[in-house]
């Protein structure tokens, strides 16, 4: 989600030490000595930590011509490629008997929106039904822009508008197939599904039924209405979809003086949305436990439209970007996640049990229906010598020791996961520059994480630079990577940076970065394709001014993770961000999402086409987030 830096959630006032404070004086001086001097030190493989190597070669070749920065209201791809919109906001998902057409004046009702694609597509994953010809797309619908969602935006406000906004959130599942004319949505489809802010979801794991999860509407603390702020996506080896609840705090209003718990989670009287005016569930004065029911990783079985999605509380509560799964040598699941807020943390969960095979009448998804409810949650500490440690978020009653005890405000294991931020503060985790997506290199097992930016770093009394987050006023972001010691379940790791983003033509040293190839800022989406290319979707300042002026609109770049070479592959329309990146198994079709084209139009709905009218260019329409299908005209593998 694009965010105005001035309103970025910023609630970590914990006093846990930064690694800067723990680093040796010589290195600290080096890092303070100016970025130009320190870059070599930051990027050089640290002792005992080789850079990833994909065997004897130099990594996967990037076989396309670089695309120049573009400010056009269009999707630009290299020669020999096509980019075609598919299933934009408002198109019917394909539920039999309920397929209302999109109204370009935004006149669809809340009930119609509840069976149409939601707004602002973010993460997405492809699930094969017939190999690379037919499958499902699960799509996150992250947030709404009320100035585009209703004909008159927020110039009037009522319950119907709240309900339409809620119906435009959540997750969509659509069936798609490749026809002679290209990829299209299958309508109707028995798989077609919408999950919205009003859909009942189950709660699994240590917070299920917890006192802090109980509300007037749900005295058992086992069922939540809805999922919101669904940001990045991941897929599990057992065929399910993982969706992160990210900026959920913005939906709630609190008392003028919020509780300490609310403050730590960024909940205040002010709210970005106006749901509480007509839906009291989002008013924490009336319903203080309702926010505890958001901020989880949601697991969905896209193959079973009757299945109930589950909030997996064992993975911890956060402003979750998303979640990504690796598998240990003995077959357990390791789930990496982070939270996209300044000075927050990176987590991993190691399942107690092994992944079960399908069989005995159960699909793999059904056989692993509770796998993510039992295991150990850790938070990351990045040390200045290039090593790192996973700190277990285990309640003292289980570990027999440690600070996560009743005396420190954690009554039981459920309270540890609900208050994962406070627990991580106590353990001394490293405060990061907004962790967004993670990806695991299929060739090397290195884990990559985008740290999109943190302009508050080192300013106004906020935490200073450290080795993992080495730039003050970090407007550009970086990509960090690590290799676990022994196995994905290891409790120590070695880390370095793949790159620091930026534009080498900038006058401010901290904004130059060290990219080998095409410049970019705001790394957000990352995903590996089958050849081991790391694809990077960007989300820099939508207006594209100042230090971003030479970068054009947000883009998708390809990176050879062995050589570090970066090449711009696709540029999106005006004021969008590029997110979600997935492929058919043959690698010959790429799906990605263009999110919030034309963002920043007035909230009163008066000028929906002020900045963009992509992809329809309907003179009476409005810009729409959309999935985009990328193909090669010769049918070859994307990027090869
Ligand atoms: Fe929804 Fe952090 O992007
Ligand atoms: Ca972002
Ligand atoms: Ca993102």
Question: Would you summarize the structure shown here?
Answer:
With 640 residues, the chain is mainly β.
Spans of at least 5 consecutive residues whose pLDDT stays below 50 are: 19-49
User: Helix amount, in percent?
Assistant: 10-25%
Tally of separate helices: 11
Q: How are the strands of the largest sheet arranged? A: 13-14-16-17-18-23-22-21-20
Approximate strand percentage: 25-35%
Which hetero ligands occur in this complex?
Answer: MU-OXO-diiron, calcium ion
Count the E strands. 31
Largest sheet: 9 strands, antiparallel
Overall mean pLDDT score?
93
Shape: globular
Terminal residue distance: 29 Å
* Gyration radius, in Å: 23 Å
Please state the oligomeric state of the protein chains shown. Answer: single chain
| Strand-pairing-aware structural class | mainly beta
Tell me what you see in this structure.
- The chain is mainly beta.
- Helix content is about 10%, strand content about 30%.
- The chain contains 11 helices and 31 strands.
- The protein has a 9-stranded antiparallel beta sheet, with no helix packed on it. It has a 6-stranded mixed beta sheet with strand order 8-7-12-11-10-9, with no helix packed on it.
- A hairpin with a 2-residue loop joins strand 4 (about 170-180) and strand 5.
- The chain is globular, with a radius of gyration of 23 Å.
- Mean pLDDT is about 95; it is low at about 20-50.
